[in-house]
Amino acid sequence: MIKKGMRRQIVLHYIFVVFVALLLVEVIFLLAIRTYYYDSVYSKITTHIGTAEDFLKDFLKYEISGERSPNQLQKLLDFFEMDYTELQVLTQDGNMLISSTGFQPDRTITTSDVPEAVGGSVGRWVGRQPGTNESVMAVSKLVHINGRETYVIRYVTSMERIDSDLLNLTLVSIGIGSAVMAIVVLFSFGLANSIVKPLKNITAVSAQMAKGKFTTRIKGDYRYEIGDLASTLNYMADEIIRSNQIKDDFISSISHELRTPLTSIKGWSETLVSGGYDPEETKLGMEIISKESDRLIGLVEEILDFSKLQQNEMKLSMGRVDIKVLLQETILNIWAKAEKKRIHLLLECDETFYIKADANRLKQVFLNLVDNAVKFSPEDSSIVLSAHRLPGSELAVIVRDSGIGISEAHLGRVRDRFFQVDALNGGTGLGLAISQQIVELHGGKLEMDSELGKGTQVTVILPMTEELAPEAPKEEKPL
Questions:
Q1: Does residue 137 register a pLDDT over 90?
Q2: How are strands ordered across the β-sheet holding 123-128?
Q3: Using CA atoms, how far apart are residues 8 and 11, in angstroms rounded to an integer?
Q4: Do residues 444 and 373 make contact, with C-beta atoms less than 8 angstroms apart?
Q5: Which helix (H) or strand (E) holds 156?
């Protein structure tokens, strides 16, 4: 007995479908064969009756008198007689007048073929012969002799041989069907095993993965959907390992990022508490403490922003935003940092664009992009910020630098969480991930093109669903 499970369901359903199909085919085939044989016998008899009637009308119409006599009935037997068939001459009431076998001339026939013949058609009846219980077919036809005498010509032929042949054919069909079912059973087991065994293997490996053993892999060259499932689970395990590695790198990086300012704050705090320093040194220490505190606040805010985005809790304060003004403010905020590396910040935006957006969050995106450009650009280089309209009511804001660029291997991952192209430059690796999600919240997209050693171009595409004109100044009413 097959245990409950997918294997059992596949085998049973497959066998059931094939069995029903075979049963229908064999029943229809056997019925068609039986009908063909029976109709062939019936057709042969009716053809013989028609031929005999023609001879009777042409050659015996003057020989048969109007009086019924044994000689007249014998002539009917002679003309209508057929090999391997009993011929009976009946009255319209079914009384037998004469038979080619010479037996039971006085009995009455009550089968359905006689009334059908009297009604004008060729009667047909199939059943068991009374007395012998033999399977027979009876075919009856009404015959008129010179318009005066009317008889029912009835043929009775045995169907035993045909039934025997049909029985043999049925047994052969059952044998063939059984052989086919045996093959189907073997095939269904093979089919079930080809599905169930890989699934059991995948389930076992998945259970190992669920326990944290992500280095385990599904082995085997599986095809079709099962192969896709195995590949997906293996890919999932690779992604989990990569995410765990990124998380570990992030923890290590953020620990370093937090330790450095905290060390400076703690050191200068202890130094200032001990006293004995002139005002200039005290001022320098306080500036360092303030700067490192701002750095800590920035790190914490970046992590909080990322957490809000991951939990879909970040709310945007939408309003009318002048992109040109926003880019000018971005340049002013980064100007001091760029000036230290003698990097020129250029704005190319002759036209004024107004869009509906959250100005603070959008400014956060541009600050991050320009800050990255400054961080990875050499001294005495330029960073260009530009904005122009795209077909289809879209606005493109581009930040282009001539810095170190990003390799093809890193370009696809640079926007991933916690990923850093150069860990030595510090940071959490969340800046671009946060920027991309903020842009997507505005219904836009962030695209990056870069070539190693030649620079990077970041394009922020934002929708312009409606033309937002600047608000008209309010008129002062005279007092």
A1: yes
A2: 96-99, 86-90, 149-158, 135-145, 123-128
A3: 5
A4: no
A5: strand 149-158
Tokens matching residue 14: 């497959």
What is the per-residue pLDDT across 409-438, written as a single tens digit (0 to 9) for each? Answer: 777 667 666 666 655 555 566 778 888 888
Residue 19 is encoded by which pair of tokens? 């069995």
Find out whether 411 and 402 touch, Cβ atoms under 8 Å.
no
**Phi, psi values for residue 199, rounded to 5°:** -65, -40
Find the mean pLDDT for residues 236-250: 79
Displacement of CA 427 from its chain's centroid (Å): 43
Neighbours of 181 (CB within 10 A): 14
* Angstrom distances, CA of residue 47 to CA of 34, 53, 78, 137, 399: 20, 10, 16, 15, 100
DSSP code per residue over 315-371 = ----EEEEHHHHHHHHHHHHHHHHHHTTPEEEEE--S--EEEE-HHHHHHHHHHHHH
Q: Contact, 474 vs 466, CB < 8 A?
A: no
| CB neighbour class for 40 (10 Å; exposed up to 12, middle 13-18, buried from 19) | exposed
Q: Amino acid identity, residue 162?
A: I
